[in-house]
Amino acid sequence: MCGIIGFIGGEQAAPILLGGLKKLEYRGYDSAGIAILENGQIDIAKSKGRLEILYDKIDGGRSFHGTAGIGHTRWATHGEPSDANSHPHRSRSGKFAIVHNGIIENYATLKAQLQDKGCEFASETDTEVIAHLLEQNDTGDLLETIRRTVAQLEGSYALGILSEEHPDEIACVRCASPLIVALSDGGNFIASDVTAVLPYTRHIYQLDDGEIALLRRDDVTVYNAEGRRIEKELKTITWSVAAAEKGGYEHFMLKEIMEQPQAISATISPRIGNDGRIVLDGISLTKEELKAFHRIFILACGSAYHVGVVGKYVIEEVARIPVEVDIASEFRYRMPLVDERSLVLIISQSGETADTLAALREAKSRGARVLSIVNVVGSTIASESDDVLYTWAGPEISVATTKAYSTQLTLIYLLAFYIADALGRVDTLTLRHALNELIALPDQIQKILDQAPQIEQFAQRLCYLDHAYFIGRNLDYAVALEASLKLKEISYIHSEAYAAGELKHGTISLIEPGTFVAALACCERLFDKTVSNIREVKARGAQVLCVTQQGNEAAAQQADHVFYVPRTYPLFMPSIEVVPMQLLGYYAAKARGCDIDKPRNLAKSVTVE
Ligand code: BG6
């Protein structure tokens, strides 16, 4: 998720922009840049790396004169972190400069059209396409030029725009990526979130999708998508800076749980073509190569490993290829039967986990083809993989992963069906149905997020527990692993996940009156089997919470508490049933007063063995 700041007023803009970018650093970024408009000329400075590099490059802004400008911290999605891929980007003649947060899903088509007209691109980004389109659509009227340009865009974008022919204005547009306009006596601002402007003002316009704002030194006009001027309600932000960084949520973890619908939509939408086919950019595997693989190995750590466990069930069922899933730190020290007929799937949010990176290198040394699913563009694992599929979850700040885990799941589903389609192992009707259900997943998840208060109420009972057990069969077991880790890693309540059918072979000896057991029962064809496991633990006095699909009334007769979740394609149920478990862990930890975003002993990415 990139950060945007813009200013136009009576003071030098560069130091204000750099200060604003500093406030946006918490969002995570890999490069930064600013553009200043002075006397009808745009000057740009930008660089890969930390903000300090940019700061030193322009002497803290003192060498950049002008009272209007835009700034950007980049979280790479298209194109690795580099000076050239950093924002702002400028149009062919240089008369437009732009910063962007979001993903332009049809950028490849637009880029080809522009190149056919002789446009030369200086970067690999989707954003640069917008700069060139502004010039191509330039009517002399900034508002009209912008309207014509955004009409050609598909995807999400918050834009900050400078035009050399409009030296007394900065413009911005909001569509599916957050953007605010802030007003002060000293000038007016645009920003991705209020943290960047709080040192100057607390008075903002919250832009809605499709709205365009033109900011001058002493006034702001806002237009709706049809180009009609509208009046916006001036809001006063009462948040502290710390609260503002979390978007008003108490913790980054809750903010990231709530961001899952948007993160999943950003990850899957660009990969489902209008023709209903799956388009996996970043994969150069041919049908012949896919046919040649005898086995897929999924290697990862922690929650990413739990995604791999889901992957085994899904890929084997859909693509009919044998799948082994392994904890990376185990894989690298056994004698893995990996060779050139193996496809190794690496899953990693950070792309820097030492155990996972070592497993990747071990697999490559044995001749395997390596495909990775990674959230951080240009990370070590990404750079050492043969193919990379990026999750577009944006920066994940909380140590306990949620939105990265969820977007990894969706790429597993897409990959399974992509392989099955390539190998002719899925019919068109099934593929279309599955993809329609995948597209509907964000809305289904939102229904659960809307019930967060009920889950919080239930979770408050857990906070006195010393032990918890999560059981399930098949995909439910895979989610039980993640549910158990979510609870224990942030609330410090001892928790175990067990294959429900395995409990009776030992661990059931731990079940006694009052023991808490969460039974995940969303695998409908095995529901009766899971019910018998519920009965087993109930017979020994357990308190059972059952998570199952809406309408499954049988569950209520068996469990002490039931949390009903919406239905989706059976193989995608992990994405649904994990959400109440994430919230359960979060609220139990909150009730226990734990340091939720930075749990003891844990790191966001363990880059040592
Ligand atoms: C752990 C994190 O340290 O590493 C987990 O706390 C994560 O959230 C695991 O799942 C693997 O990290 P990554 O970056 O390789 O997905």
Question: Would you mind describing this structure in some detail?
Answer:
There is one protein chain. Helices cover 36% and strands 22% of the residues. Strands 3-2-4-1-10-9-11-15 form an 8-stranded antiparallel beta sheet, covered by helices on one side. Strands 5-6-7-8-12-13-14 form a 7-stranded antiparallel beta sheet, covered by helices on one side. The radius of gyration is 25 Å and the shape is globular. The protein has 3 domains: 242 residues, Glutamine Phosphoribosylpyrophosphate, subunit 1, domain 1, CATH 3.60.20; 196 residues, Glucose-6-phosphate isomerase like protein, domain 1 (Rossmann fold, 3-Layer(aba) Sandwich), CATH 3.40.50; 140 residues, Rossmann fold (3-Layer(aba) Sandwich). It starts with a strand and ends in an 18-residue tail after the last helix. The chain is an alpha/beta fold and 609 residues long. The longest helix is centred in the last third of the chain and has 22 residues. The structure holds 6-O-phosphono-beta-D-glucopyranose (BG6). 6-O-phosphono-beta-D-glucopyranose (BG6) binds next to helix 10.
What secondary-structure arrangement, pairings included, does this model have?
Layout: E1 3-9, H1 13-23, E2 31-38, E3 41-48, H2 51-57, E4 68-74, E5 89-90, E6 96-101, H3 107-116, H4 127-136, H5 142-150, E7 157-163, E8 170-175, E9 180-184, E10 187-191, E11 203-206, E12 212-215, E13 220-223, E14 229-230, E15 235-236, H6 241-245, H7 252-258, H8 260-268, H9 287-292, E16 295-300, H10 302-319, E17 323-327, H11 328-331, E18 342-348, H12 354-365, E19 369-374, H13 380-384, E20 387-390, H14 403-422, H15 428-449, H16 452-462, E21 467-472, H17 475-491, E22 494-499, E23 516-520, H18 527-538, E24 543-549, H19 554-558, E25 561-565, H20 573-591
Parallel strand pairs: 16-17, 16-18, 18-19, 19-20, 21-22, 21-23, 23-24, 24-25
Antiparallel strand pairs: 1-4, 1-10, 2-3, 2-4, 5-6, 6-7, 7-8, 8-12, 9-10, 9-11, 11-15, 12-13, 13-14
The structure holds 6-O-phosphono-beta-D-glucopyranose (BG6).
6-O-phosphono-beta-D-glucopyranose is lined by residues 301-304, 348-350, 353, 356, 399-401, 602-603, 605-606.
